[in-house]
Design brief:
Elements (H helix, E strand, L loop, with lengths): L6 H9 L6 H10 L4 H13 L5 H14 L4 H10 L4 H9 L4 H12 L3 H9 L4 H11 L1
Length: about 140
């Protein structure tokens, strides 16, 4: 019978091509049949040596999504679905350029109008930003 790779090795393979959250790695290890105690130990080890860091992941992911034109609601949803704690998500959002400034750049590029307002809503921009955009057009 072939020996099953240990939890740390399995997690390291999962981290080879992209950063992952603690929750994502935990699920991956669980799906590979790794027991709860072994998963916890592996995740603690990887966290201690800096291979897994949910705060770093949240900041980086939030910045990338914001650069791509996403609003705070979309970014918040993305991070929370990845298992990031609410307070870590909020800290990552607080470190971003204000949502209204990101929206203003999009409006500058796309023009002011209903289509742009719909686009911003679909990208997760808040109601207050959308109301400001609509008010500019009036």
């Amino acid at each position: 019978m072939a020996e099953r790779p240990d939890a740390v090795e399995t997690a390291l393979r999962a981290l080879r091509f992209r950063d992952r959250t603690t929750a994502e790695l935990d699920l991956r290890l669980e799906q590979r049949g790794v027991g709860a105690a072994e998963r916890l130990e592996a995740l603690e080890t990887l966290g201690r040596i800096g291979y897994v860091d949910d705060e770093r992941f949240a900041r980086s992911r939030a910045e990338r999504l914001a650069e791509r034109g996403s609003g705070d609601a979309l970014i918040r949803d993305d991070l929370e679905r990845r298992g990031i704690a609410v307070e870590v998500v909020e800290a990552a959002l607080a470190g971003l350029e204000p949502e209204c400034e990101r929206a203003a750049r999009i409006v500058e590029r796309r023009g002011l109008g209903v289509k742009t307002a719909r686009y911003l809503a679909a990208k997760g921009f808040g109601e207050d930003v959308l109301e400001g955009i609509v008010a500019q057009g009036e």
